[in-house]
Amino acid sequence: MSAASRKESPEQAEYRAHCRKWLSENKPATPTVRLPESPVEIMTVEQMDYLSAWQKSAYEGGLIGCDYPKSHGGGGLTDCQPVANQEMQAAGVPMLPNVIGLGMAAPTIYHHAKEPLKERLLPLLFSAENIWCQGFSEPGAGSDLANVQTFAERVGDKWVINGHKVWTSLAHFATWMIILVRTDKSDKHKGLSYFVVPIKEALGKGVTVRPLIKITGETGFNEVIFENLEVTDDYLLDEVGNGWKVAMTTLLHERGAGPLISPSAGRGVVKKESAGDAYSLMTLAKEFARDGKLAADDPVIRDQIMQAIIRQEGSKQDARRARVNALCDHPMRIPLQSKLLMTEIRQDYAALALEIQGAASSLYMGDENAPAAGAWPLAYMNSYGMTIAAGTSEVQRNILGERILGLAKSK
């Protein structure tokens, strides 16, 4: 059943027609640079410029932020963002680069910021004129979010921030950061507060951004060091000491369970030099030989490919099921498990792709003999970041066990 054939409100049906028409008339030009696998792998100014221009165009066309109020730069519609996401995905358009802004910062600002700050920040976030990053993880507190030690001290009418954030995707392009800090050392959870901080204008004046080289040889992650950065109460979200509550809003949307999550609608313009999904393994298996015959003729490989496809399709159908309340035994189970399952499924089929390629899978980007320009080894190595981001797979299993299944908390 197609997305359009499901029962929709008149507003959604009209909006879908608008999206299809606009996308048919406004597809971006083919990029002249290699696009990354995902927004958090954007490395170069050329990549960011191309993708930001696309996001701004899509926003001006009404496809981004459409469910937010008009006063905040949105379209004032109801439950139409999923429609735009579906149509952008179907049209095969590029990804939206401001993924942290759209998926995490926007809903957090919408729910917790003061009105003037919403009106100031959200329109430029939607248009990608301001890129956002997330300041949660620290060298001594990765998935232990309640243990962050970056400290904001009240000095007169300002807050002075000192500390160290790490694994900060897109910080090298970011104008703004959402940041969880400690404002009281006497209480683990109630001692946390949540700010938005303008890091780009503070570079060299209280903020230092240092790129981190990943196992892929690329950048994308960064560490960000704060030395006496001053911000005012205007940039505080909610109240002092309510940072844990605000952070849960962010994580809810980061893990795909929030109703206002905005799209990262595509993986990029797919070229032959790109890794694919589980279905693409069938084509791959017809191109590589194993023990004198094609991998596609190996019954074990054939079974592994089908298992990967079944898991991928099952996850997609779970996403459909999540939209039907009567089919959900718990409203949070499917959204929360989707992050866990899809990151591990992608890692598994990327590993299978390397097995199919055999010795050729050791050839990487830059080697003229590398199959698909080394895309599959890149996809496999990048997959580890996805099983760590937004809470490791182990953390996700604990959340599902404790909050959904009602199991005892782990010790």
Summarize, please.
The protein has helices spanning 10-25, 45-60, 81-91, 99-112, 115-126, 243-254, 280-285, 299-321, 333-357, 375-388, 393-404, and strands at residues 132-135, 151-155, 158-165, 176-182, 192-197, 207-211, 222-232, 236-237, 289-290, 293-294. It is of the alpha+beta class and 411 residues long.
Molecular structure report:
The structure is a single chain. With 411 residues, the protein is α+β, with helices and mostly antiparallel strands. It folds into 3 domains: 10-130, Acyl-CoA dehydrogenase/oxidase, N-terminal domain (Butyryl-Coa Dehydrogenase, subunit A, domain 1), CATH 1.10.540.10; 133-254, Butyryl-CoA Dehydrogenase, subunit A, domain 2 (Beta Barrel), CATH 2.40.110.10; 280-404, Up-down Bundle (Butyryl-CoA Dehydrogenase, subunit A, domain 3). It is built from 11 helices and 10 strands. It has helices at residues 10-25, 45-60, 81-91, 99-112, 115-126, 243-254, 280-285, 299-321, 333-357, 375-388, 393-404, and strands at 132-135, 151-155, 158-165, 176-182, 192-197, 207-211, 222-232, 236-237, 289-290, 293-294. The strands form 3 sheets. Strands 1-4-5-8 form a 4-stranded mixed beta sheet. A 4-stranded antiparallel beta sheet has the order 2-3-7-6, with no helix packed on it. The chain is globular and about 75 Å long. Mean pLDDT is 88; it is low at 1-5 and 259-273.
Give me the CATH superfamily of the largest domain.
Answer: Butyryl-CoA Dehydrogenase, subunit A, domain 3
The CATH architecture term of the largest domain is: Up-down Bundle
As laid out across the biggest beta sheet, the strand order is 1-4-5-8
Question: Strand pairing plus helix content: what structural class?
Answer: alpha+beta
Topology as H/E string?
Answer: HHHHHEEEEEEEEHHEEHHHH
Separation, N- and C-terminal Cα atoms: 45 Å
Tally of separate domains: 3
CATH C-level category of the largest domain: Mainly Alpha
Number of strands: 10
Q: Proportion of β residues?
A: 5-15%
As a whole number of angstroms, the C-alpha radius of gyration is: 22 Å
Q: Calculate the mean pLDDT score and round it.
A: 88
Name the helicity range: 25-40%
